[in-house]
Amino acid sequence: MRQKGRAPVLKTPNCSVGNTVLDREAIIEAQQVLVDQGLDGTVKFLVEADLAQKQVVLPVPKSCPSGDCKSTKFHQVVEESEHTDYQEIRVQEQAQSLSMGSLPQSMTVILTDDLADSCRPGDDVEVTGIVTRQWGRTIPGEQCEVDLTLLGNSLFVQNKRSDAVDLSASIVHSFCDLWRAGADKPLATRNQIVSSVCPQLYGLFTVKLALLLMLIGGVERVDESGASIRGQVHMLLVGDPGTGKSQLMKYAAKLSQRSVVTTGRGSSAAGLTVAAVKEGGQWALEAGALVLADGGLCCIDEFDGMRESQRATVHEAMEQQSVSVAKAGLVTSLSTKATVLGVTNPRASSNPRDSLEVITGLSGPLLSRFDLVMVLRDAQGPDWDATVSEHILAGHQGHHQPHQQSPDNATNGHSKVWTLEKLRQYICWVKETFRPDMSREAEGTLLEYWQMARSRDDRHAARSTVRMLESLVRLSQAHARLLARHTVTRQDAKVAIMLVESCSNSSSISSFSNVLQSRCPGDPDAEYLKVEACITNTLSAWQETLNDY
């Protein structure tokens, strides 16, 4: 609840000048720190006058302010001058707080003294200040422009709490009770959660599981050398028109507490990372989509529409989680610890058996930065077409039964899907509570599979690098967090292998390739035993091949 007498910063009318306001916004632009005030005097009579500096140039009066002196020559008394730091930033409404179809509003905030240079573009801040008017330059014969600005009194950077959701004790207890009740069958409980993701789409169980693991992510760590190892799981959806890619992307943006949605064709390289703009005679940095999504999710539709120069800027942001800037004399590095969800259509001339580079039109170095690349092919089949059409027509007839409730959940006993808010609370809870460690069994399984993938004759060179092993670790950690575990088990490792195999067109585990028509299994334990047996047999056959040599 807001304090009495305070109002949101960007909703303040002109009549509120002089009032104190409080709100939480995102910084989109930050100018350089300037000197704010100096003390000047005339040369002849040494008459002192206080002059407040604005922008870059210190204003000089046209004549001596004493009235008796007619001198027009001035100099600054440096030893008696008083200086204070002065900086102007621009804040913008957070995208997730906007209603559908509305444009974000922005406002200039003036920071002085210790508040100057206390934040960077892309930060989430809570700012309190007094609304004032800022007059523009006066030009003879033209109307003077005036803008509302905020004279900041306090500013708190809240990036670390960007994923914070109001988790009451009752909600946490309900999640704990859920896993205590489902301790004997954890996969059935997991499937209930996965089935609640985008319930209006029929099937796509494997994709929904991958999407949920992407939102949860792995564990971010710092190694002994001080280098940060990313925990974000990047995902690329490649699918034919009408396969539900856009709906999945929008649902993921709603689930994330901080999200930015953009397109590859409509965004420039600076719009994705950071731009240098000139205002008031000085240069300032303006945050792009990846910087604004720091700590959250960045959804990029039409990913294949980006030019080569744009794709090069995304490389550093996806792997090193930062953007290096050297523009207009401004040299700095901005954080981009954001999960990237790319959506694109396959090339029209591509064949389902072609490599991912041919299907997507993306280079190998960029594809290797995605942990998962899901290809959704609209394969024709009478049984599948009949089931999907029945589900769509039932929705238009007013049957208030989500598809996962009727065909999928009816077989495993779940009668109700989770709400969007409950899913957001659960994702926030597992991310804040669980930081699972790898077990020996999980490490051995992942290492053995990675070595087998490296030795395949038909291996994809860009997808079978060391980054593949890191992706397997992140997916295993995310699955362990989804199941509320403090340790990554062999089961988590084999589910991660299943997801990676489902991305391959030439998979040696062929039963996992059709991700579009994958459904929630009626018996999750029996389905997992099939998956485990298939992976174990594949790894055993590879070991026998090595022994023969």
UniProtKB/TrEMBL annotation:
InterPro entries xrefs: AAA+_ATPase, MCM, MCM_dom, MCM_lid, MCM_OB, NA-bd_OB-fold, P-loop_NTPase
Catalyzed reaction equations: ATP + H2O = ADP + phosphate + H(+)
EC top class, as a word: hydrolase
Domain (MCM C-terminal AAA(+) ATPase) ranges: 189-392
Keyword flag ATP-binding: yes
Keyword Iron annotated: no
Annotated GO MF terms: ATP binding; hydrolase activity; single-stranded DNA binding; single-stranded DNA helicase activity
UniProt keyword annotations, A-Z: ATP-binding, DNA-binding, Nucleotide-binding
Gene Ontology terms describing biological process: double-strand break repair via homologous recombination
GO CC terms of this entry: MCM complex; nucleus
Documented EC number(s): 3.6.4.12
Similarity comment: family membership: Belongs to the MCM family.
Protein name: DNA helicase
